[in-house]
């Protein structure tokens, strides 16, 4: 279950019971407590939005510190998100790609979903309206972070990620955390797009000019075997809450909050 926590000025929606039970940290950040200036104020975590990279790195370090994950900062792994459907597994060899906005190895290219079974490798992707999804398998331990905008959601990137991990790991039972994203309340789109979604998902109405991405993702997860009882939806609209989250639709040029997951090493 997700709860809102605050540490050293950084606000994160996280599951403390999961971490205590199996050493898996998950989180969705809010935008306060960082050092970036407008229009990225203040906790912008993305390197690709014309923010000062040194400030992005300070913001990332603050998030890792607030989550007690700063010992793993060098292995922080990020991706060049392109609204595609590629899932990349993070091993020791590619861990740390995109750890820093300033210098170091670049992010994993052309990927919108990362997953790993490697302890001590934090995964982080960036969002301003798109749907952040964190997937967790407790035994065997595995984590995934997925970026699902409308293109990814329509293509079924979330369900595909669940199935791909299931194919690699015998006995994996996934839980899903769905973070802050633009709600149906604020997501006005071309009715033809809604109709395309309606062809793929029974929960999407045929005639509408508003799109409920969470409903599509929930159905996609359900179909991939992650039933509603194992889905935790934060249910907060980014465009409605630009004091707490970034919204591309509401703000245009802005920063990015993150979804984060880490398998803590077991001693
Ligand atoms: Zn809204």
Please summarize what this structure is.
This protein has seven helices and eleven strands. With 267 residues, it is an alpha+beta fold. β7 (131-138) and β8 (141-148) form a beta hairpin.
Task: Give the number of helices.
Answer: 7
CATH H level: which superfamily?
CNF1/YfiH-like putative cysteine hydrolases
Largest sheet: 6 strands, mixed
Q: Which residues sit in consecutive blocks of at least 5 with pLDDT less than 50?
A: none
What's the helix and strand layout?
Layout: E1 3-7, E2 10-14, H1 16-22, E3 24-29, H2 53-66, E4 87-89, E5 113-116, E6 123-127, E7 131-138, E8 141-148, H3 150-155, H4 157-168, E9 174-178, H5 191-200, H6 213-223, E10 231-233, H7 248-251, E11 257-263
Zinc ion binds at residues 183, 185-186, 237, 239-240.
Can you give a write-up of this model?
With 267 residues, the chain is α+β, with helices and mostly antiparallel strands. 24% of the residues lie in helices and 22% in strands. It is built from 7 helices and 11 strands. The longest helix has 14 residues, at 53-66. The structure holds zinc ion.
């Amino acid at each position: 279950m997700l709860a809102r926590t605050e540490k050293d000025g950084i606000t994160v929606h996280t599951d403390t019971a999961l971490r205590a039970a199996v050493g898996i940290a998950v989180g969705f950040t809010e935008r306060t407590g960082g050092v970036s200036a407008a229009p990225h104020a203040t906790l912008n975590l993305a390197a690709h939005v014309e923010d000062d990279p040194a400030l992005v790195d300070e913001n990332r370090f603050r998030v890792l510190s607030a989550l007690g994950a700063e010992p793993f900062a060098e292995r922080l792994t990020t991706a060049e998100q392109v609204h595609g459907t590629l899932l990349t597994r993070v091993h020791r060899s590619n861990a740390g790609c995109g750890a820093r906005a300033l210098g170091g190895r670049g992010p994993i290219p052309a990927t919108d979903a990362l997953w790993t079974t490697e302890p001590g490798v934090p995964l982080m992707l960036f969002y301003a309206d798109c749907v952040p999804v964190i997937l967790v398998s407790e035994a065997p331990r595995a984590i995934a972070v997925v970026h699902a905008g409308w293109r990814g959601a329509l293509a079924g990137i979330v369900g595909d990620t669940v199935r791909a991990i299931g194919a690699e790991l015998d006995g994996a039972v996934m839980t899903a955390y769905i973070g802050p994203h633009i709600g149906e309340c604020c997501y006005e789109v071309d009715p033809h797009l809604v109709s395309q979604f309606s062809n793929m998902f029974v929960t999407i109405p045929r005639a509408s000019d508003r799109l409920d991405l969470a409903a599509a993702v929930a159905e996609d997860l359900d179909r991939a075997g992650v039933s509603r009882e194992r889905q935790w939806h934060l249910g907060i609209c980014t465009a409605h809450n630009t004091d707490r989250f970034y919204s591309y639709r509401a703000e245009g040029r802005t920063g990015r909050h993150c979804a984060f997951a880490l398998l803590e090493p077991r001693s």
